[in-house]
Amino acid sequence: MTVAIWAAAIIGGLAISLQLCSIAIAIVRCRWPTRYLPPPADAPPITIIRPVCGLDNFVDATLRSTFTLDYPRYEVLFCAVSTRDPVVGLVQTLIAEHPHVSAALLIGDERISANPKLNNVLKGWRAAANERIVMADSNLLLPRDYLQRLLAAFKPDTGMVSAPPIGSRPRGFWAEMECVFLNTYQARWQYAADTIGLGFAQGKTLFYRRSAIEAAGGLRALAAEAAEDAASTKIMRASKKRVRLVDAPFDQPLGERVRADVWDRQVRWARLRRDSFRSFYCLEIGAGIVPPLTAVIFLALASGHSVITATALLLALWYGAEMLLAAAAGWHLPPLYPLQAMARDVMLPVLWFEGWREAGFVWRGNAMSVDEEDQAKAA
Q1: Alpha helix locations (H) across 239-331?
Q2: CA-CA distance, 326 to 85, in Å (whole number)?
Q3: What CATH class does 45-165+202-257 carry?
């Protein structure tokens, strides 16, 4: 019994310590920007590649934000697979409305991988006029100092800069659930990992020096993994360069979401993490409140203390700290946050097992797989 008590105390204490430390790191790294960053005097020219596909919620606002950046020298290359895509008309209208911005729409689909996004951006990569290239997803809202903030994160030891998406403008229960997954859970742990030198790229924003990717074999090298962000991370680590996350990450406005939107996205990401970073994925089974709550209940029963009181104290500490992070960072805080965060944490073990269950998933109507043989067939 003594061994079990010590084990429960260690599990509970370690989980609570990691939770609070990761939140403290995220509060420092993700707090709401207090000042606008002006362009540097020697601002280098930058190419922004935005792959577009379909009409996402808030697509007009997110794509329009590309044209309102306060940066002296940048070009924008929108990439679409087909002229029949409904977003093409919107892109053409925005380009016509902003003639002062160097922008173009590129159409075509040369298949170099099983990753539709990578195939789509290839033409933009080839057409880019600059050494510094940003790939920014079409559903990301770009602040006016977007490029300045990316440049500020580039240090001498940096190979690339990235940023996780922050869910904003949710409509309805499941959109708020997505904020609970994206913000106070996933973004928080990504910033904790980045702070200790284990940064992972996330495909919403990928900021490269073209020469670094060309030295690794060009854009085709990103086809080595099912996801281009995972391949980018491995390329940078192989070259002894760091992947860094920009402080105060950028918003992805969500709008209305249904359960399948949220769950399928999380399952897709879980399978991609399991395939590309298996040893780290194995550790995710210990994430969330379930392990420390089990330990605390066991300790309360073993010591004769009130299980209800012990549980209530843990819940208040655990989710109160997450709510403090959301408030400090200026992120959306759902009215039912504690209940939704508890629901998220109950889902995490199920999600972890789903990550192992099979290799396939669907992204924007495209059947994909993390299985190498399936990827080869698709390419």
Answers
A1: 259-276, 278-283, 290-303, 307-329
A2: 36
A3: alpha beta
